[in-house]
Amino acid sequence: MKVGQISIFLENKSGRLAEVTETLAKAGVNIRALSLADTADFGILRLIVDDTDKARQAMKDSGFTVSKTDVVALEVPDKPGGLSGILATLDKAAINVEYMYAFVQHSGANAIIIFRFDDPDKAARVLKDAGVRVLEPDEVYKL
Amino acid sequence: MIWNEEFETLPREAIEALQLKRLRGLVDRVYGTVPFYRERLDDSGYRPGDIRSLSDLSRLPFTTKADLRDTYPFGMFAVPMERVVRIHASSGTTGKPVVVGYTRRDIDTWAELMARTLSCGGTTKGDVVQNAYGYGLFTGGLGAHYGAEKIGAAVIPISGGNSKRQIMLMQDFGSTVITSTPSYALNLAEVMAEEGVDPSSLKLRYGLFGAEPWSEGMRKEIEKKLRIDAIDIYGLSEVIGPGVASECLETKHGLHVFEDHFIPEIIDPDTGKTLPYGEKGELVFTTITKEAFPVIRYRTRDISRLIAEPCACGRTHIRMERISGRSDDMLIIRGVNVFPSQIETVLMTVKGVEPHYQLIVTRQESLDVLEVQVEVDESVFTDAVKGLEGLARNVEREIRDVLGISCKVKLVEPKTIQRSDGKAKRIIDKREI
Lengths: 143, 433
Hints:
The structure holds 2 protein chains of 2 kinds. Chain A is α+β, with helices and mostly antiparallel strands. Chain A has helices at 16-26, 52-61, 82-92, 120-129, 137-142; strands spanning 2-11, 31-38, 42-49, 65-77, 97-107, 110-117. In chain A, strands 2-3-1-4-6-5 form a 6-stranded antiparallel beta sheet. The mean pLDDT of chain A is 90. Chain B has 11 helices and 20 strands. Chain B has helices spanning 5-8, 12-33, 35-43, 65-70, 104-120, 139-151, 163-173, 182-195, 216-226, 340-349, 385-403; strands spanning 84-89, 99-103, 128-131, 154-156, 177-180, 206-209, 229-236, 241-247, 255-257, 262-267, 280-287, 298-307, 319-320, 325-326, 331-333, 336-338, 353-364, 367-376, 408-412, 427-429. In chain B, helix 2 crosses helix 3, helix 7 packs across helix 8 (182-195) and helix 8 packs parallel to helix 9. The mean pLDDT of chain B is 92. Chains A and B meet through strand 1, strand 3 and strand 4 of A and helix 11 and strand 19 of B.
């Protein structure tokens, strides 16, 4: 239910992002989804990959600061109001969304969005009860 | 104008005779009243009566900033507290500051020396002196204040900061002299430009600037932008405060050290050997008239050169060249003394950062800006931006609380700050001063 995501601390300097992707390429890791949060001084690159542990180790070995976090992948109807319904459900249950980003890939007619919650277990339960499809980790890694 | 014609133009032989007499008196006095000096002098092999000529000074032990810290707060005072009328302390140190005391006579001496300094820069009793040095524990504000009053000038004790208000008072009160740090003078010029105030519409004529290192280039810029004569003055609280040495308006070349009160020496910072006049090295001062807080051979860590050639202004006191650097790693940021080790101590107390850091100093719009680059610790790294930003703000707050200066903290990746085998490259000073 919970999907593993790796986060990498990046200083804002040229070429650093390329070094990340190069390291992953060499390790044979495929990126499934990514998002970059940036401030004036640094960025945090968040990745969903096909092999989280392998990616994490490869990054560590190359001297990057890496952490692993659990996120939740949801299937969102790809139509107006699709996301809105899900957010309303979360709001009602007082669940805080720390951040979210969309998957490039589709799952049938639906979009996939990655959510980071402060309490992922509770969020997944509430969403399931509300009829939202929560993707299993293996489904996500293989997409 | 020379404030004290008699003492400032004494023939060299007379100065040296006076120095020797006063030096003997000083050494006898501290030997009897300050346990620290007694012990140091005994250890050095000194016996009372050993000072027979001025050259014997070079046999006495040095006093360092660490000595002053170790004797915190009043261990170096040479008079009982009943005779102390003022206490100042150095700014921006971790833990304990360096504390200095003054007797009533010391305050009078200081006022005299600042009267000489201000006169060196053209100030007379008809002037209106806008004193933008900070008032408080810092010696700059009150030092300049007493000197200006002694001359009989009108002092505006405005202290530092609030540039728009400074400019308003300058216009309305007709200030003719400004005393501040040189970078603050440039800042005032910039605010004037923003506010559309033409400096030539002001009555300002002279500026006396000190408390931080500056250059000839900066002098030219201040003089052009504010349309004044800019004078370099020198002092440090451990010696007395401002009023140790001053350039004269006539030559603006070298700062006259008021030698009837201080004996300057230049030493090799590595060997401690006294260097002849003209050679570059570390400035060392002995205060020969101070009562409450005298120092013997105090190592300033400032790099300069002594100029023995007579000066066109008529003063016979030796000149020291404008300070060209430091023999330690101390930084002066907006007039506040900062040692990298102090930053390190702060970083050690903050969870989540490594004590690997680099200090980058720049000058933006004529104000010093300190950036502290520090490595983020893997253990506190999360995927959230706010946690890291909070960490950076936390470090900034700690540094401000402990050192009294604001800085910008930039988190960098672990192991990216250069490690060195020997002396760590902690400072990148990009200020062009």
